[in-house]
Amino acid sequence: MQEIVLIKNGELVLKGLNRCTFEDILIKNMRKALSSIGEFKFKKSQSTIMVQPVDDDTDLDDAVEALKKVFGIAALSRAAVAEKDMQSITETALEYLAEELEYARTFKVEAKRSDKKFPMKSPEICRELGGSILSKFHHLKVDVHNPDITVTVEVRDSFAFIRGNNIKGAGGMPVGTSGRAATLISGGIDSPVASYMMAKRGIELVAVHFASPPYTTQLAEQKVMDLLKKVAAYSGPITTYIVPFTKLQEEIRDKCPEVYFTIIMRRYMMRIAEKLARHQNCSALITGESVGQVASQTIYALGCTDAVATMPVFRPCIGMDKDEIITISRKIDTFETSIQPYEDCCTVFTPKHPKTRPSTAEIEAAEAILDTDTLIQEAIDNVRKVVIHG
């Protein structure tokens, strides 16, 4: 019995004349996600993409798990291929879905007949197949509102496909359809979630991480790489810049008022990240900030931070509370890594009483003593670049 995977595109169907471009990028992303599993053929048909393994021994369990993390897929399902006659459809459905039907208590049948030349209409297909299922599985009852399993028959141009319940996909837009942005990634809970959320909207990610040895350790850096690996399982490979930040932080500590330290540090992070972002053809920055979560995330402090940026700064977590962010971090499996006790540079030289209502003018005056251009250039000249794969 031939088995394929059916992909439902979700919001891509709203893209009008540009839809084919979005679907082509989605197929490219699916091909990458499946590259380690086997070779597959892809065929577009209306709002569905058919994914067919070239080799019969390809593990479709692994393929489905990989496809569940590809943005742009609203739902997917494994399906059996049958000849376009009712006997073949019935025999295939009873065999292919036997295990699921055996353990279900209720079911319904749905039919979609895109080939209008097929001699039976959709309600007739439902009645005949439903009757055959009830004849074989005597414990089952029909429930058209909330069934344990929905048996779906799709009659298309060349074949019929039989499938059970849909599997929820990652949703969103295919990565690469919304441009590229640089995400400022730390070892905390928020920034990996922010990165994931923007990748879900089709943005290709470049990552920038600031390291401050000896105040931060190699374990802290490895923690960030592990977090990026989990995000890359959804976003695809992430080009990552590791920026040496020790000298810059020490300069701020030694020459600037303590109450402004965190904000000035964040301003330098934004300046450096933007320079690296432009080098990678990025059009925006991404951070994990949430209003009011810490002193550097008041609207006044965020205004001072954004004053040095000349490209848009996306903050998808901005209106979320910690519980909401944690829920997403658990979903994408970053939470347990994020709470490992290896501190990042954001915790170095933290002021005891940070200014929560700074003005841009007073921050600019406080950092005027620093040789900004030299400090930034020295940090950029010594960055390390790695590519993280999921």
Features:
390 residues, alpha/beta, 9-stranded mixed β-sheet, 6-stranded mixed β-sheet
At a glance:
This protein has 390 residues and is of the alpha/beta class. It has helices spanning 19-34, 60-67, 86-96, 98-103, 122-136, 190-200, 218-235, 246-255, 261-279, 299-306, 322-331, 335-338, 360-367, 372-381, and strands spanning 3-8, 40-45, 48-53, 75-82, 106-113, 141-142, 149-155, 160-163, 167-168, 180-184, 204-211, 238-244, 285-286, 313-314, 384-388. The strands form two sheets. Strands 1, 2, 3, 4, 5, 6, 7, 8 and 9 form a nine-stranded mixed β-sheet that branches.
State the end-to-end CA separation. 32 Å
Q: What best-fitting shape do the alpha-carbon axes yield?
A: elongated
- Strand fraction equals 15-25%
Radius of gyration in whole Å, from Cα? Answer: 26 Å
Uncertain runs are none
Number of strands: 15
Helix and strand sequence: EHEEHEHHEHEEEEEHEHEHHEHEHHHHE
* Overall helicity: 25-40%
Number of helices: 14
Helix vs. strand class:
alpha/beta
The major beta sheet can be summarized as: 9 strands, mixed
What is the residue-averaged pLDDT? 93
Describe the protein.
The structure is a single chain. This protein has 390 residues and is of the alpha/beta class. Helices cover 39% and strands 20% of the residues. The protein is built from 14 helices and 15 strands. The chain has helices at residues 19-34, 60-67, 86-96, 98-103, 122-136, 190-200, 218-235, 246-255, 261-279, 299-306, 322-331, 335-338, 360-367, 372-381; strands at 3-8, 40-45, 48-53, 75-82, 106-113, 141-142, 149-155, 160-163, 167-168, 180-184, 204-211, 238-244, 285-286, 313-314, 384-388. Strands 1, 2, 3, 4, 5, 6, 7, 8 and 9 form a 9-stranded mixed β-sheet that branches. A hairpin with a 2-residue loop joins strand 2 and strand 3. The longest helix is centred in the last third of the chain and has 19 residues, at 261-279. The model has no long low-confidence stretch (mean pLDDT 93).
